[in-house]
Inverse folding.
């Protein structure tokens, strides 16, 4: 039995909707999303932040939700794969590209891949370099995304089925 002192009220804006919840200080965002909000798109893969299956966007930045204590996110904007399309009837362009390119096999990693790709595109657009970005490239604008940049930036998301070539092609389709 846990004490009331181990719980706090947090307000999260998840996929555009506010949620105020009383959460145990040890509860991670992934479990809150899946068990409390019934948003089961984000998957529990390794539970150690190594596979990327749980990737969501927190205030626009990609994060492994299995490593984030929910209580630390009070006031944050969370976007899961279910919220990528916003209020539109149409899927997000990356979701459409993944479907068109058959960029998944079993689909387990797909939600994390999609959220990571959205975050990765924003990082590159903001000019954030990666390990493979040419050091001589100008630093005052977006980083051009070629296949090696995409592969490097998506390397934190594992696909057990090996759909990587199709994932890269799908991302190329939207840049």
């Amino acid at each position: 039995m846990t004490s009331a002192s181990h719980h706090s009220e947090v307000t999260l804006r998840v996929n555009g909707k506010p949620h105020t919840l009383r959460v145990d200080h040890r509860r991670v965002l992934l479990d809150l999303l899946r068990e409390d909000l019934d948003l089961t798109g984000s998957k529990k893969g390794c539970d150690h932040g190594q596979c990327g299956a749980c990737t969501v966007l927190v205030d626009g930045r990609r994060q492994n939700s299995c490593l984030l204590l929910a209580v630390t996110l009070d006031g944050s904007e969370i976007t899961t794969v279910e919220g990528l399309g916003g209020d539109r009837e149409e899927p997000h362009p990356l979701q459409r590209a993944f479907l068109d390119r058959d960029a998944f096999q079993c689909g387990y990693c797909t939600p994390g891949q999609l959220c990571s790709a959205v975050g990765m595109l924003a990082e590159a657009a903001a000019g954030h370099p990666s390990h493979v970005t040419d050091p001589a490239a100008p630093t005052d604008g977006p980083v051009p995304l070629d296949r090696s940049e995409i592969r490097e930036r998506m390397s934190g998301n594992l696909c057990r089925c090996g759909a990587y070539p199709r994932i890269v092609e799908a991302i190329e389709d939207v840049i």
